[in-house]
Amino acid sequence: MKKIYSILACAMLLLTSWSCSEDTTSGPGPEEPTAPELSAQLQSAQEGTVTFTVTATEGAEVAYWFGEAAFFETVDVTPETIFRTGETITPVSFPATVTIEEANLYVANRIWIAARSNGLYSQALCLEVNPSDEDILTAGEATKTSLSYIIGNVAPDAAVSHTYIELWFYKYLHDQAVAEYGELTEEEFNRLVLANYGITSTGPRTVVWNAGDANEPRESFAAIVGGRTYVALAAPLLNAETGQMGRAESVEINTPEPDESSARVQVTISELTPEGMLSVIDPGEDVRFFYYDLFSRQTLDEFLSENTEKDLCDFLYEYGYVSANCYTDQWGFTVPGAAYVLAIYGVDMNGDTFLQQEAIEPEPYEPEIELTLTPYENEAESLYGYNTLHVSATFRYFDQIDPSTVMYLFTSKEMIDALSSGLSIEDAIQYGLFVPNAMPLSEEWSASLTAQQQFSGVLKEDPFTSSALQPQTEYCFLVMTNDPSGTEVIGAYAVAATNAEPSEEEDEGYKAYLGEWTLKGQSTEFWSPNTITYNLRVEELVANYSYRVYGWSDADVAQTTPFVMNYDPETQQVYIQGPQDLGPYNGNDNIHLYFGGMVLGDGDNLNYVNTAPQRLFTGHLYDDSFILQGEFTEFEGRSTDYRSMNYVSVDSATPDTYSRIPGALYDAIYFNIQRAAASGTAARRNYVERPTAPAPALQSAAAGQLRHDVDPRSTRPRPRIALR
């Protein structure tokens, strides 16, 4: 800030003569010094310049301190602090005029003034410099394809930040800003919007935005639609380097209502499968730009049953994709085989609008049954993989399934081959060779199939022979039903062998895993290296076959309720299966404690995988290191590997959801495991450093009453703008 002062009176040269002889004349004694007198008056404050006059006792020094009124509310102003902090001048005579340049006159300011003479100070005076009350922004004209606003009352060379945004987006940004920064005044919020999306120009002008104009701060174009409300914003840019602004103003601009247009876009659908499609939308020469999105037919019908097509247009205007040229999108359906609608809200060259709905009817999937059969361990129920199997059957793409039409057969693979009469199992199912020996579903399995289109259970005996399952024996589970038309048999089968019975001979490979271990890794609480440590204890459960593992969590249950790890004598490796049902949690039979695996999902979040029992990790020893490697699994339609494990609780009333338990809110990831007594130079095989995870970005606005039922894997991002 530049400070300039000028002395309006001319300086006078005083001549003094001195006597060579001593003056012995007696007279009155010296006068006591008094504090200087002081007065000041504001002359003008405009276009960044403040002028005031000051009058004080002759010969006095004068100091002034200029700043925002809000700042002075936080400090104790005294004549001493004015001289110490402000600007000091020594006028030869008074009154003197002082000029302050580059002042921010769009906020309230104060000038504190004091005088000093002979070591004494005057009282401090304060001049109030009120902000300019002249508006610089007014609304201009608007058409169906353009809007304008007028910037005035600024100097020809004054920089101004300005822009326009949609009213809905203005409100959305306000909600985001309040959530992040707390309550803001309108002016504070307007400055924040301009800091993110403003453009800079100089001097008075009329700014015109035409539909299709580039809007670089939004990384888009001016999508101006008739019958909509927009907000123009402007503020003087006082310092381009720091972004300091003056009073930030806003005005609303309404565009005229559009007529209904007969224009249409050209839609081409290709690569249509039950899982997704490729769409090309070409606006041609008649359409200026368009909004669009894809919805399941069921969701859209439900929405339109309670809302109008105008409401759908409003939704697309606020939440849809927008494009001004031919655009291609790859879509993934969240409900494979369901009917979808590509909804388009277009604006023609005259600014009139239309709603276009393109029906998408993919071929549905053929009904199928997915079966898994695996050895099963449950220490709480004394079940072991050498005499127990677990089956899980999921019926996919059946509109409705009648459990009374479903039959199953479970017996040894040897018996299944005998019943097949030399045919493959698939052909034998189609020819009905297993029907005479098949059994109907139990009441429990029937209820589960009706409610969830799946059933699962533990198999401890061969119902065909009424004998217990034998170790190291192959078994087959097959299930059959009719297709919806009743003309074809739909069946599936799975084969699995029970584990070998543990050997009674001493196995040094088994014993090598026993003892205490130290796990170190990253915690998902802050995603920083070496911030979590578990002291693990591996104890014998079944000799040469399985272990109890304690300590894998900060939760108390990790010390009282271990999970089970199995040993493979052929490879001398270990493996951990899950989810493991560890019995009732806190004595509640309806809520069970589980130990299971986790995979990385979107946004670097770990997700618990609730699936049929399967291998989570396989491990081996390397020197003093215990290496655990995650197995692959299917999660949300993609193949991924397990990264961690932890305890959760599951309520039988909601078996598909899990709850964190106290002490197990965060997980260990990118870990290494060493023997408790090993040195720090031991091998580190399962440890990878990663940067701290970024703070989550502000999320887009909720979709109101209409939700997106697709996974839009587009080649460009959605036009969602968040405050930076």
Structure in words:
The protein is mostly beta strands and about 725 residues long. It is about 10% helix and about 45% strand. The chain has five domains: about 100 residues, S-adenosyl-L-methionine-dependent methyltransferases, CATH 2.20.130.20; about 120 residues, Immunoglobulin-like; about 100 residues, Immunoglobulin-like; about 130 residues, Immunoglobulins (Immunoglobulin-like, Sandwich), CATH 2.60.40.10; about 170 residues, no CATH class. The protein is built from eleven helices and 49 strands. The longest helix is centred in the N-terminal third of the chain and has 15 residues. It is elongated. The N terminus and C terminus are likely disordered.
